[in-house]
From TrEMBL, chain A:
Protein name per the record: Prefoldin subunit 4
SUPFAM superfamilies for this protein: Prefoldin (SSF46579)
Subunit structure: Heterohexamer of two PFD-alpha type and four PFD-beta type subunits.
Lineage, uppermost ranks: Eukaryota, Rhodophyta, Bangiophyceae, Galdieriales, Galdieriaceae
Function: Binds specifically to cytosolic chaperonin (c-CPN) and transfers target proteins to it. Binds to nascent polypeptide chain and promotes folding in an environment in which there are many competing pathways for nonnative proteins.
Example GO BP: protein folding
Membrane-spanning intervals of the chain: none
GO molecular function: unfolded protein binding
Coiled coil: 21-112
TrEMBL record, chain B:
Record's keyword annotation contains Chaperone: yes
Function: Binds specifically to cytosolic chaperonin (c-CPN) and transfers target proteins to it. Binds to nascent polypeptide chain and promotes folding in an environment in which there are many competing pathways for nonnative proteins.
Regions annotated as coiled coil: 134-168
UniProt protein name: Prefoldin subunit 3
GO cellular component, one term: cytoplasm
GO molecular function, one term: tubulin binding
Keyword terms, alphabetized: Chaperone, Coiled coil
Pfam families cross-referenced by the UniProt entry: Prefoldin
Any one GO BP annotation for this protein: microtubule-based process
Superkingdom of the organism of origin: Eukaryota
Length: 130, 187
């Protein structure tokens, strides 16, 4: 095995590719984490929306602002939730786009690095939950 | 901090905090010039350990700034809401529920609020107008976000230096094995 490994000559250019690849992995981990948070947030908002729909328009509900709750009309709460959800969805889309871009770059690098080093290099992540 | 093993470092000031690791082009030459495999190996390991220490310290700083963000955004949200009331000229008392202690809430009537009090730390609280408070909080929030961005940049650079060092270590190791193998073969 050692003799097989030592046949590969690592150049400075390869090193740069490996570094860039590891940078992408770090970014990807952060983005996946962020996407998870945003999705959870979105689910919460959707739950709240469903509950609100069951209420009469003039009912007052507690809306959370910062750390306290304020009584507002159902219609106002609905409006508030809609704007919240919109901004959340655009953030989510942004994250997805970034992830997609990183994935393309990673695949490109994988092709080059695996092409040169074959099984002597391992570029797989531990959990593939993307 | 990075006084030893200067032959492993790039002579640039690309990043003032994190010294750049040099990619060792010719392992055999480096080993020959710097006192043999075990010395080089030790120096690499030492450098790697230092990078790791720096990594955990930067990560910690980043986390502490990240922890500040929810508090600031919460406070900002309240102030913006108060300002929106002012704009709509809503003068009747507002009924709110606030947290009295952990998990205990109480109701309060807020009559025509004009000022807020910001907790500045060290047992000091200062009265601010909505406008001033929003400005201050926004500035703090932007400051924290800038810091996080800078730290992320430093961390990304640092991780690259760590990867370079890791590859150097494994290449020195391989060179050693290769030498042993050829020694055995020549017998």
């Amino acid at each position: 095995m050692t003799t097989a490994f030592s046949n590969y000559e690592v150049t400075a250019e390869d090193q740069q590719r490996i570094n860039y690849f590891s940078r992408l992995v770090t970014q990807k981990v952060d983005l996946v984490e962020e996407r998870k948070k945003l999705k959870q947030e979105k689910e919460k908002l959707e739950d709240a929306q469903l509950e609100l729909e069951l209420l009469d328009e003039d009912t007052e509900v507690h809306r959370r602002i910062g750390e306290c709750y304020v009584l507002v009309k159902q219609s106002q709460a609905v409006q508030f939730l809609n704007t919240e959800k919109e901004s959340l969805e655009s953030k989510l889309q942004e994250t997805e786009d970034k992830l997609e871009k990183i994935k393309v770059e990673m695949d490109e690098l994988k092709k080059i690095l695996y092409g040169k080093f074959g099984s002597a290099i391992n570029l797989e992540e531990e959990d593939e939950d993307s | 901090m990075f006084s030893v093993a200067s032959f492993l470092l790039e002579n640039t000031l690309e990043n003032s905090l994190v010294p750049a690791a040099k990619f060792l082009e010719d392992i055999d030459k480096v080993v020959e010039e710097h006192g043999g495999i075990s010395t080089v190996f030790q120096a690499l390991e030492q450098l790697y350990t230092r990078y790791k220490i720096l990594d955990s310290s930067l990560s910690r700083q980043k986390r502490s700034f990240q922890d500040k963000i929810p508090d600031l955004t919460n406070a900002l949200q309240v102030i913006r809401w108060l300002r929106s009331l002012e704009e709509r000229e809503q003068r009747e008392p507002i009924e709110t529920t606030f947290e009295l202690a952990d998990n205990i809430y109480s109701t309060a009537l807020v009559k025509n609020p004009q000022v807020v009090y910001l907790w500045l730390g060290a047992n000091v609280m200062v009265e601010y107008s909505f406008e001033e408070a929003e400005y201050l909080l926004k500035e703090n929030l932007d400051g924290a976000r800038d810091k996080i961005q800078q730290l992320e940049k430093d961390l990304a650079f640092l991780r690259e230096q760590m990867t370079t060092t890791e590859v150097n270590i494994s290449r020195v190791y391989t060179a050693q094995l290769k030498k042993q193998a050829s020694n055995v073969a020549s017998f």
